[in-house]
Amino acid sequence: xxxxxxIMEMMGKxxxxxxxxxxxxxxxxxxxxxxxxxxxxxxxxxxxxxxIKDIQIASGLLADKEQLEDTLVVTLNKALDKxxxxxxxxxxxxxxxxxxxIPGLGI
Length: 107
Description:
Blueprint: H1 2-30, E1 32-36, E2 42-47, E3 52-57, H2 65-98
Antiparallel strand pairs: 1-2, 2-3
Helix pairs in contact: 1-2
C-alpha cells in the first residue's frame, strides 16, 4: 500500500514536470534575441528555441557570395550555441524544480 502511494505521488510529480517543460518550451519560443556578426554585416533574430525570425544582411555583403555564406554560418553557429547553452540551463532548472531527486541522474 505504501508502495502504491509512492508510485501515485511520483506519477503526479512527473505530470507536473511535463507541464513545466511544456511551459518552458512555450516561454523559450516566445523569447527572441539578436545575434550580430563580429563585423556587423549580418544580424539574425531567433527565438530561444532556435526558430529563425529574421535575417538582416548589409547590402555590401551581397556582392561577395563566399563572404556572405561564411558570415552566415559563423553567426548562425554562435546564435545556436547560445540557444543550446540557455536551453540546457533552463531544462536543468525546470527539472530541479519539478522532478523528485533521483539518485544518479546528476541534475
